[in-house]
Write a structure and sequence with these properties.
44% helix, Arc Repressor Mutant, subunit A, 11 helices, 311 residues, D-Maltodextrin-Binding Protein, domain 2, 11 strands
């Protein structure tokens, strides 16, 4: 269905008068009639009854009017939003991110955004996923970048990028020489994990539990960076976000274990306040995220465990 025909239909459905509709649209009455007839042919049913100068909606016309109103309103909203986006010269953008995307993925996006939209003041808050999610629900931030799809009705979700937790260790660690590392092999070493309540920790514990292994030698540290440094020093092994250790793996400071037990897949997502119009600054930020996503994609593995809460 052509938008201009739907608009002609909506105007006639409201006015129920061909001459008035033609005047509103700056068309001839014959042009209005042609638009309506073409729409009726396309749909295969009558939308109006005509009795002399009197015009009335048929049942099909009444049903179509509801859809036409919504379609045309959305089309108008899209046009306005894109126009605002095109002329984005000032304003503020509040972004919240959990620790993994905030510390390791958003840097290039923020740099590109500030270069493209220098008049927009961008605020980035990095925290645990639950606090970011709460701020999204409350409308305190425009867009959140989270390491899990939240189970709440208060936000709208868009998949962003796939990441994985990879088992890493020092090249000097005894497990580094194994061609394949199984979960049971971790019984001889210390497994470094985040604090209780962390999504990463829950992901690791569930991953190992599903493979029939219960870690005994645990070391708890409060940040990904602290764990990464401890692992590099030989204090143990850890499951860490691939995006957080990629440089160290390339430099040979860390090595990633091989085998299905060494990878925990997950989906990072964007979260927006539900039912609220997304401001142009947020739309521009999301567009850049999608554009840079191919460069940020850290894995194409099919494994995923996207039901977590946390960082």
């Amino acid at each position: 269905m052509e938008i201009y025909r739907l608009e002609t239909f909506r105007r006639l459905a409201r006015a129920l008068n061909f001459s008035r509709t033609a005047e509103e649209l700056s068309l001839s009455q014959s042009a209005v009639s042609r638009h309506i007839e073409a729409l009726e042919r396309e749909l295969g049913m009558r939308l109006f009854t005509r009795n002399g100068r009197e015009v009335a909606l048929t049942e099909a016309g009444s049903r179509l009017l509801d859809y036409a109103e919504r379609i045309l309103d959305l089309a108008g909203e899209a046009t306005r939003a894109l126009a605002e986006l095109k002329n984005l010269e000032s304003g503020e953008l509040w972004v919240g991110a959990s620790t993994t995307p905030g510390n390791y993925l958003l840097g290039p996006v923020i740099a590109a955004y500030q270069q493209r939209y220098p008049g927009v003041e961008l605020h980035l808050n990095i925290g645990d996923s639950q606090s970011v999610l709460r701020e999204v629900e409350e409308g305190a931030i425009d867009v959140g970048v989270l390491g899990f799809p939240p189970r709440t009705a208060g936000v709208e979700i868009e998949p962003y990028v796939r990441d994985e937790l990879a088992l890493v260790m020092s090249p000097r660690h005894p497990l580094a020489g194994l061609l394949e590392i199984r979960a049971s092999d971790l019984g001889t070493t210390r497994l470094l994990v985040r604090e209780q309540g962390s999504n990463s920790r829950r992901s690791v514990e569930e991953h190992l539990r599903n493979r029939g292994f219960q870690p005994v030698h645990l070391g708890e540290l409060g940040s990904t960076e602290a764990i990464k440094n401890a692992v590099a020093a030989g204090a143990g092994v850890a499951f860490l976000p691939r995006c957080a250790v990629d440089l160290e793996i390339r430099a040979g400071i860390l090595v990633a274990g091989t085998g299905a037990d060494c990878v925990i897949g997950r989906q990072l997502v964007l979260a927006y306040p539900k039912g609220r119009r997304r401001p142009p600054a947020a739309l521009a930020f999301a567009a850049l995220l999608r554009k840079i996503r191919s460069g940020a994609e850290v894995t194409e593995r099919p494994e995923a465990d996207a039901s977590r809460k946390g960082d």
